[in-house]
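Possible race condition, two jobs.
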Amino acid sequence: MAMVERKLCFLFSFFSFLLLSGFSSAGNVTYDRRSLIINGQRKLLMSASIHYPRSVPGMWPGLVATAKEGGIDVIETYVFWNGHELSPGNYYFDGRFDLVKFVKIVQEAGLYLILRIGPFVAAEWNFGGVPVWLHYVPGTVFRTDNEPWKIHMKNFTTLIVSMMKQEKMFASQGGPIILAQAKNEYGDIERVYGEGGKPYAMWAAQMAVSQDIGVPWIMCQQYDAPDPVINTCNSFYCDQFTPNSVNKPKIWTENWPGWFKTFGSRDPHRPPEDVAFAVARFFQKGGSVHNYYMYHGGTNFGRTAGGPFITTSYDYDAPIDEYGLARLPKWGHLKELHKAIKLCEHALLYGESTLVSLGPLQEANIYRDPSGACAAFIANMDEENDKILKFQNISYHVPAWSVSILPDCKNVAFNTAKVGSQTAIVKMVPDKDGANLQWDVFMEKAGIWGEADFVKDGFVDHINTTKDSTDYLWYTTSLYVDENEEFLSKGSRPILIVDSKGHALHAFVNGELQVTASGTGLDSTFKFESPIPLKAGKNEIALLSMTVGLQNAGPFYEWVGAGLTSVKIAGFNNGTLDLSSSRWIYKIGLEGEHLNIFKPNGLNNVKWVSTSKPPSNQPLTWYKAVLDAPSGNEPVGLDMIHMGKGQAWLNGEPIGRYWPRSSSIHDECPPKCNYRGKFMPNKCSRGCGEPTQRWYHVPRSWFRPSGNILVIFEEKGGEPTKISFSRRLAKGACGLVSEDYPSINVESWDNISKFNGEAKAALQLTCPENTVISSIRFASFGTPSGTCGSYQKGKCHDPNSISMVNKVCLNKKGCTIALSKQNFNTDLCPGMSKALAVEAACG
């Protein structure tokens, strides 16, 4: 092995030791123009957003451990005000909202923590994380120089700070919290609030600093953050970001490695090559603290999703998927990136940067510290063309839209476009033990159940009426149809015309569902026209208005309403009948909700009807089944592809809203994603014409061995007999490594060194715990093409590839295959760069 390679291996081993040993208590935290300073030392930090309420306590240790294994130093989380202050002064910090427990788990893992108190968070979270009740405190206007708002904001901020102080969680007390955030993404809308904008921002900064927590405060996207508060960047790319003071470090609080989904939309995907490119460019340009938003997105359980129309899944295409599994290759590629950047830490933080132009879209930044250590980043920002760049008299191949990292200013330890990590083949596998459920049924009445809540001429705003205590509000009226109406004798139907501010609606006529309509994630308002059957005499029109998560961001977002604005019926002898000003009877919520029949202590509040054939396509129906826990220990998803729209609970725990709404077949989903060039959420979409979400995460900790109660409320009709559970399993692994891509993985090089002769690269494959490589589905050394699951042999192919890989890998948990003469015919196809592609099954 060459000397430089051994040196890199030693450095990686040393870094791994430091990573695994954990960090000591943070102690004193300050900052200068280059970085945070912890206990007198500048720190280069990799941070990961993991939101405690978007998973469950049983998952927290595993999520934190997987982040740490991926090279993460810091865990970042928002604090979710509306999850903690359920009503004024009524606080909740248990279960998924046990903030102290979460922080202690981070501390026990030896990681730091960034606490983004907000308390407005946006975050695709219902009402931006602010309690809905606050909107109805007289005189309150959110996020401006408004006294009621400031009083409640300060009270909650002080409550959280006091709680953390009491538990000694701030670094100044020996705890893990090294930064805290006040406010959130206000700078872009500050001017919209007029004279109340800037004074509020300055007040928020002063209020935060006065909390005396002993660590710095940050404000993201706050371009006028006053000293000593640090302003930070949120974006897909932050390499060009500059703090508003030369004395502040460059911090990236939100690098979006994917994007959220809305019901009825495509599935966004951000390639790992582009994520790595953005991170490398940030550190190349002087960054020192970087956070992935999200590193684990998790699940919007219950009614916590905002939007509107944000899906229950908040997977975010993050390095750790919704179910807690490392997403490969993204997680692995970023892990190797973190190692390479950490090798440059001292030079980056203590050295000065020299910029060298290597072409119109090519450049290098060189960092040399006083000790002589040198690190360099070579960037090719060209979106189409790979380049051979000459740097310090050495030629380097730098692919388009990539950065090469040289920890010693000579040898490339990592290139952002060359993905060497394996790809995991992960599938949702139906659990046979959870099939053929026996259902009990309870049917809601279409319209007013029990006593009406109130009667009013005209319409009320949905949100102002329910105050988000439920998704549902009934608008009901009646009309008399004269027997002489022409449409009755002709057998035709009049047209129901409805306008709504959002978000969705089911229209019933005389107890029968006629039409369902909704807005979209881009525009929650909607209008529909539908023929309806009317009879001579009295007819009842019952419209069930639904919210699908409240607004979570934007100026004055708390004033955005929902519900009906116009109802008309066209086709009468005298023209169109306008019911908008008629007398409407209102009822908030559903009877089953009111009686808590989804909770264990409310199950017996109604009479369930047992049936071997539960009704299909029946609206307004509650279903209940008793079941055993799915087999195994793998994560579990509830398959709702055959249902319509509604909500689900297990043992009283809120799984969330389900809605297998499909995206349009006319949407654009490229067959192959080009990672090169600026990323936007719709650039690399998948799933056109498919349901946005099919499976709904049900945490393992919610199951008992037997006697579990699954409750479903179906709004418009589905096939309950086809509801099933699936287990999320890693069924295999793929890898493709080229001779011209030097491996930087320590274990790979240690194994390669056992062979005689040089090996230019190696491919590593690993199966999940308790499984081994059971078969090799594909192997080719030569010029293979394609992607995982669809590899193909090229014109150049070593026929011994399969037998060689079988020999090295079969029946092992993991294996390393060197691209060496001992393993393959490396003289094959002279002059051509060769690669090894393998697809293995795990079992």
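Job #2 (started ~2 s after job #1):
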Amino acid sequence: MTLTPADPPLTGCAVVDLSTGIPGAYCTKLLADGGAQVVKVEPPEGDPLRRWSASGATIQPGDDGALFSFLACSKESVVGDPELVRGLLASADVAVWSPGSPLSPQEIHRTHPHLVVTSITPFGLEGPWRDRAATEFTLQAWSGGIVGLGRGAPDRAPVHVGGQVGDWVSGAYAAAATMAVRLRAPGTGELIDLSMLEVHVLSLTYHPVTFRDMLDRPWQQTRRLNMPGVATAKDGLVALGCATAQQFFDLCAMVGHPEWIDEKNPVSIGERTTATAPVIQEWIAGRTVAEVRELATAFRIPNSAVVNGANAPAMDHFEARRSFLPNPRDGFLQPVPPFRLEPARLRPPGPAPRLGEHTGSHRGTARRASGKTGAGLSFSGLRVLDMTAFWAGPSCTHVLALLGAEVIHLESTSRPDGTRLIAGVPPTVDQWWERSPIFAGLNTNKKSLTLDFRTERGRDLLRRLIATCDVIVENYTPRVLDQLGLDYEAVRALRPDTIMVRMPGFGLDGPWRDNAAFAFVIEDASGLTWLTGHPESNPVEPYSIGDPNAGVHALNGLLLALEHRRQTGEGALVEAAMVDAALNVAAEQVIEYSAYGALLERAGNRGPRAAPQNLYLTAEQDEFGRRDSWVAIAVATDEQWEALRDALGHPGWASSPELSTTEGRHKHHDAVDEQLAAWCRERGADEIVDRLWRAGVPVGKVMQPHRQAELEQLRCRGFFEEIDHPVSGRARYSTLPVRLSRSPVHRRLRHAPLLGRHNHELLAELGLTEREIAVLEADGVIGRAPAR
């Protein structure tokens, strides 16, 4: 097939969707948005998502659940017998698989070696846990994500992140892995083995193993509510946050307490915001949401309304950007795709198929010519200018670095990457800026260049560097590059085929365009916060998912742009707003409200699928000597309920026939919780897990995140690799959440670069002499230590 620049990048790529559940459905939706032809293979009764509603809305016979209708946009449906499935696989380029299909991914890969087979499973296809029962909730527990960033008050159970976010982000990682493999070797098959547990580790925790190894202490020992966080104003909920010392100082001034400012002690911002929170919350209570936000924006303090499924479409920013559009078949509102491409195009959403609608047209399918013709992309030949900081941007470029790209991380001595500064290492320690576990974890395999582009010489060198780069990724607020005269048009003038990925918090236009954006603000603005926490209290910010979710979605957009360039020779602009990525993984809230008038609410550690589902206190103390050791149990099917009854020895309380159905267990959840809590309180976590897992019940220990590397499944898969750092010594680092059949397990990681480590190398490549480089260093345009 000959493609034109107007065709979506994946036009001609045929995908067979053999998955069930959100992860596979979202993976193939992202591929369909990119132009792939996705054929969904279903059993005669249809995919279970056709009958699903998180609010319990009744789905009439012949109708489909709204979430299915969103996830199945632009796809085709066949009811597959073995002969038809074999023909589809022989004719396809990609197969996406999850447990439940009669074929194994290994069998598909062996029988159809031309295929890229993407397997999505809870723990991966190999390792001692590969066949263990799990749900998204128990995976959050095993990952350390439930307590990973101090979520929840210390006098209550910790709370998971609501909304099945791990399922959605796993789908985004699966789509990115699929496209990366296709780009590298078009027409060559590979088995991609994605572990959802590993996705949870990367998305819900902040490199805690590296943190413990480098600093000999855990990220934190106690849970606390992030303050000010979500607070009650006169007319609703509003969220404020402080990610830096300066933002806390500005907050002090805003609420009329400049005496709280202590510039000599900027490290303990978390403790100080907690101590002052009652006064701040009282100040907020006397004002409207609009008044609080107007002041906070003027002071450049991160802030947001607390968005949910009911009010999201009416937010002025989302209205201005047309962030929601009607579903093309059923009319309810759904989010637009999580990124925008120019001049490359995404496919406009098409209607979801009715069950088996395309079965007849796919019988006797002959082998189609793939749209993926020509040479593949060698990531080892790809040069990426990484103008990002903190977590979201570096997590996107980190994947490229792990795949072999040359990634140049740009900083300046006056403004180093913010993650170098948040490890709590005092400035009195030698080379303190090189001892940040978070920076180290996000930037392995990269190079470092410092360049003060506030100076004319710095801007000139930046333009010369841009002309040598295939890809530029940046996550400044939009005004920064606009003021420098380095928007996409200016970059394209320097190198016409450059791909530029811009990752602003709220997009390149709209009323919130220049608002400060950190993970917690993105969570507040998208609905992710709304579903997290206990129902009788204000929501709790996840304080995690907003950044890495933005990174993996930006990566998907970037890979589509690379495919567009491979086929057309054109560069592209990718606008990957953090909030757009978050609106997509929180899509179910707006969809349920628009389709059924149902506002999804937070429910502590319960959820809409499994019952019982909760955290239960065990008989043990945790490693810090507290009664704070928990297990997660989630019974997702009637068969698992029977397994739980067997494991408990058929107690009388569990014998009621009403409990044999999911509906009955939801109805009597309080009573079931009371009994399970009593049983767990008398046992240790290992005993509970061993008994229930052997019976087939999804269960997980609520891990302290710095203990992730002790999990035998992660050890078996080699998820952590040891690297020696010249300043901070040896530590273990997380890798990628996938294993590839034709690639080595180990990534041969290089430690994160020292600040300015590659200045001479990179500037010499631009033609500068040693003397010229020395002058730049003497004048502070470049350097290898933060400016005093």
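The radius of gyration is 26 Å.
Logs attached separately.
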